[in-house]
């Protein structure tokens, strides 16, 4: 599930963007606390060793320790007002063990002594032993070599926490001002910034110190037509990125021009909001779509969400096996389909890859949360299903000898489990621009930006909206449409993919809050693609009167 | 599992700490929020327990205000030096914060309804109790070659708030939520049941699981019928969900006055103003809140259950009985204190629960009186399509059946719907007896012309 935030779930998303999801046990701190150096790495190692020794002495056969410091900053505004500035820190330790063939986990807030860690380890062992009675078979953990003392740092250029709050407020105020000047009645804007300082240690002999950064600038613009009483909105075309504040400095090469400007590794918030205000106003006079079959040309700012829901989730092995049956659901992509080696997930043009190493992506790390060095692997090659996303206690089921490295916990207090890697559509190998793609479309719709999204619990039937819809008639853009949503079935949809633009058009989109698990954990994940064309997709008209 | 600081403080203990914190305060206004408690859970899938855990926390947040600038600092250590340091830190943050032009001065003392939504039975839950609850659900499934996946989460906690204008409020609260999905071994049938209670002695996981088992077995061999407009019987779990968006929560979550008056809500009126006082749905629709209802007691102030509707007012506004929709007419909207002040009206906070009046019929009675229709156990992945009309989309899941001549005839494949709760509540045919769901009381509803737009192969 792409769970943006709780308010959106209950329908309060109307007025834009409200409360962020905060990590567990977050406490409010002063902004300068976000720049304080975390615990020394030598001390972290000592604490981790204390936990591992304590667990071993109680009978654990495997232990991993995560010492985590999670920092968040949110600057939240509307029109000419700063609504809130939130700076939070969450620090603690999670210890996971295998004892009597069963997992056990315990976490402790503010743990700073070897005694704290030892106690957590002992509790984790006790839980494992208690739950072992309810197990059907022991955990089979894929072997993993130790990497010794290593570190990984996201290749950012500017730590966003070093940028003064005033500069961020000034940016959002100028963004809001531009929206109001260009036809918006209301505008909400937010800067979300995250830094995860994670230390992982395991009895396999890895001690990995990692520093991960994420940023997401967003806005929502509303334009009201008092004559009709209708309102229209347009959200930002930004993407959440695994980058620092440099994402907000767009170079000309980061901009993709066309019916509207879209962005790659740099985002011009001011330019986008100016366009958004005008487009929200223009939507009032857009033509209401006629329901029927259309060829869809989908921009990466839109397609990422379709990839996320219809490829990323169904190819998570824990869903396939039934571990998420009571919440997120299971999957249509069952093991027999994979075993057949001829399940046509999509057309020959469709190559979908999982990647935990992609620079600038939300999922990029050096090592996952169970000490596996990250990598890139195929999920769908030339249209055929070839693999899943799996972690150490699952890979034996799909005959792999080592984990694919996509284990993640959203906090030190949460137990790590299989999460989605960055899952992306490979760019087409034949040179093809968006203009050339549109030129061949007789009756189509060009969709930019993500909107409404919904998919069933086995990932067959889905419906997606968008931010901007343009009618394509005989190879030409013929004006703006509204009330558009498309419905399809995963296999049918990916088999209707006839063209993918080349790598010059490749861009990332993503989700800051992908929800899974009970209790629910959120994960940030990117999805890349170039613009792609899908033929004969069912489009419905969503206008209603109440 | 969290090892430190297990704490359900009493009212007196909480007040003592808050008073101490306030004694250090030097800002124009200072407020303190103290929360603590324990959360425990057990999760199972593929007929075995997958994870279980417990965490406890006790934390104190201080908000200091100078003029219209506010700052908050949080701590979970409680010695005098730490408390004073936290007050100073909040004051430093406030001094450097930008001004909030919508800041409202803190409230003085308030009168709260006497409610105690707390159960000793729930407080006394142990890991063994959770394991037994999971076993009671797993055991009947294992015996009938069915596969269970379920989750139970219990929480026991308290919230106390106080401020330098002598407001003080305290609430302790317990809750247990349980849900189970049962699937047939071949994956062709799936059933679901969910329960939520304040007092865990009222929860029977075996009873709920048996309903999910029956639905799983009865849903095997689902037939495809054409999408279109159908009469539906929506069970309460199809109207309100604990873990996802839902049609009635979407509507109740959209009754904010400011959005309506700004022109961006289903309650906005053409040419300006709102639809307050207008009849927007069937005259049998009456929805009100009552924090004292013994079946769904909530916090007497916003801090507790009020979070469900986006934070009902950690500012200390009292929750009270209030009617939102009466005989199909919009009677009230909720306000932030700023917007209420600007409009010169009472600052009604968002509710912490709601009760939809229903009838006396059981679900079986409603099926019996249906000539042709579809019974829906629950909906899934419900998301807004058009905020103006509250058009939502989503799918049926875990038990969808065709009814003919008062009887369930056969299971049907799942549908995608595109529907607005406002249109749905205009097409009301019948209402059953309300039951507790997600902390609210909601009846099963029979609706005509419910719009299904496509079929899904998902089981």
Describe this structure in words.
The complex is a heterodimer of chains A (546) and B (459). Chain A has helices at 6-9, 41-57, 114-132, 165-181, 269-283, 300-312, 317-321, 335-339, 434-439, 490-495, and strands at 27-28, 62-78, 81-99, 102-109, 148-153, 186-202, 206-225, 230-235, 255-256, 262-263, 287-288, 292-298, 352-355, 376-381, 384-385, 407-408, 417-418, 422-425, 443-448, 453-455, 461-464, 468-473, 476-482, 484-489, 497-500, 507-516, 521-529, 532-541. Chain A is of the alpha+beta class and 546 residues long. In chain A, the strands form six sheets. In chain A, strands 11, 12, 19, 20, 21, 22, 23, 24, 25 and 28 form a ten-stranded mixed β-sheet that branches. In chain A, strands 1, 2, 3, 4, 5, 6, 7 and 8 form an eight-stranded mixed β-sheet that branches. Chain A is globular, with a radius of gyration of 24 Å. In chain B, 22% of the residues lie in helices and 36% in strands. Chain B has eleven helices and 19 strands. Chain B has helices at residues 11-23, 80-96, 120-123, 127-143, 205-218, 236-239, 247-252, 257-262, 337-343, 363-368, 421-426; strands at residues 29-45, 48-66, 69-75, 146-163, 168-184, 190-197, 229-234, 287-289, 322-326, 329-330, 355-356, 372-386, 391-404, 407-411, 414-419, 428-431, 435-437, 440-442, 445-456. The radius of gyration of chain B is 24 Å and the shape is globular. Mean pLDDT of chain B is 93; it is low at 1-5 and 303-313. Chains A and B meet through helix 1, strand 1, strand 3, strand 4 and helix 3 of A and strand 1, strand 2, strand 3, helix 2 and helix 4 of B.
The total beta strand count of chain A reads 28
Task: Tell me the number of strands of chain B.
Answer: 19
Rg of chain A, Å, rounded: 24 Å
Which chains share the greatest interface? A-B, 97 and 109 residues
CATH architecture of the largest domain in chain A: 2-Layer Sandwich
What's the rounded overall pLDDT mean of chain A? Answer: 94
What fraction, in percent, of the residue positions of chain B are helical? 10-25%
Query: Assembly state here?
Result: heterodimer
CATH fold assignment of the largest domain in chain B = PmbA/TldD fold
Just name the CATH architecture of the largest domain in chain B: 2-Layer Sandwich
Which structural class should the secondary elements of chain A be placed in?
alpha+beta
Pfam families (chain B): PmbA_TldD_1st, PmbA_TldD_2nd, PmbA_TldD_3rd
Keywords (chain B): Hydrolase, Protease
Domain Metalloprotease TldD/E central (chain B): 145-214
Domain Metalloprotease TldD/E N-terminal (chain B): 32-94
